TrEMBL record:
It comes from Paraburkholderia fynbosensis. This is Short-chain fatty acid transporter. The chain crosses the membrane at residues 38-56, 68-93, 113-141, 203-224, 269-287, 299-320, 332-355, 361-382, 443-465. The lineage of its organism: Bacteria, Pseudomonadati, Pseudomonadota, Betaproteobacteria, Burkholderiales. Keywords: Membrane, Transmembrane, Transmembrane helix. The gene is atoE_2. It comes from the Bacteria.
Amino acid sequence: MKRNTVSPSTAAAGHPAAPRGLVEGLVYVFERVMPDPFVLSICLTLVVVALALFIAPHGEMPTILDAWYAGTFGILGFALQMILILATGYAIAEAPLVQRGLRTLAVHARTPARAACLVFPVVACAAWLNWGLGLIVGAFLSREIARRVDVDFAWLVAGGYSAWSVCNSGLSSSIALSQASHGNALNLVEKATGHVVPLSQTIFAPFVLVPTVLVVIVMTVVFIRMHPKPENVVAFRDTSEEAADASGDDPHARPSGAASFASHLEQSIFGTLFLLALGVGYLVVTWRKEGIDLDINTTILIFLMIGLALQRTPIAYANAIRRAARQTGSMLLQYPVYGGIMGVMKGTGLASMIAKAFVTIASPAMLPLWSFLSSLIITLLVPSAGGHWAVQGPFVLPAALDLHASVPRTAMGVAMAENVSNMLQPFWAVPIVAIAGIRIQRVMGYTAVTFAVSLVIYAVALWLVP
């Protein structure tokens, strides 16, 4: 029997025992101080507007209002892309074949220590391959393990999110990919020098690979030691599964009774095969002509095709996306608000002022580290790596060229800081906690420790590792 087995919402509303240690104290504080992520985004907007008014180079109110409006609605395309990545990833992870695979993996996690040893490498590898895949795998694997093991669910989800943090050092790093892609709009290095920066000098370089592996190993050990004492464990209760059991509904079951023409169309595999043929055909033609290249839209297309193949019928896939929509609704509120923050940061010159302040005191050897430190601050307010690079890149890159500092190291300093600051910025945690079915406050109490540990690891590696 699991101890204190309650639903996530009940856990969040309950009154856990008074904290006895540093980690339990952090969780206790985050539960009582940190508001809902949407409310937090409004508070951050207020802070940014106030800073822009008082210290930004172009902090006049008309400029702030125009920049806020442009940013709020300028991010809608990106927001839809992010929601589609999560929804299509959800449909993959929810497919019967994938669920059986996750259950097979989860069987091996019989204790909290084994759970951490399973979650960290699996989620980290998925996130290194693709950040969207890492988020989905982390949420679903955490749920499967929590159904079987007497483990604190917030601790487990936080472990998955911590393992996901390495994504900006992996194959889907927008900063590394854009600098390696000829003609990319964000390839600031090519625009300034005429050269691209190959991935061998960024994500495959020792100064990136070494801390990435270290973060996974060290945080696995740290999380094992951080697991709450038995009397403070709040385990997972899958209320949605219980409701399905009570009603006898199977989301993948075929409808009973006489099949209509519409039902035959819905259950026909030919609709799936047609869409798969279109998607595969496009990728083959495009990649043969331009070479293999993964961007956000291509990732969505690949996720769509894999999900369709796994769900088999159009109606099964449509139902999976409907269930995914219930998990991604909160993102519809937050992305536009953060878009407004990005707009104000960029339009008033506030972000460039922060970046320049660090650059002016840098030496060639220390510029990558100062780039990293300034990125920590900017990430808390501009949590999208692509948008962040568009703001900070135009200032740190010319400084690297003028000082003859390492351009790849300076650029990846920005990306590596994204890994760190995301552990305090709930922007990317929202989808994983929504899918997992838990409030974010308890999760962020644990990831605050990941922030502190990974900050030291990445900073030291950026400074000392060749």
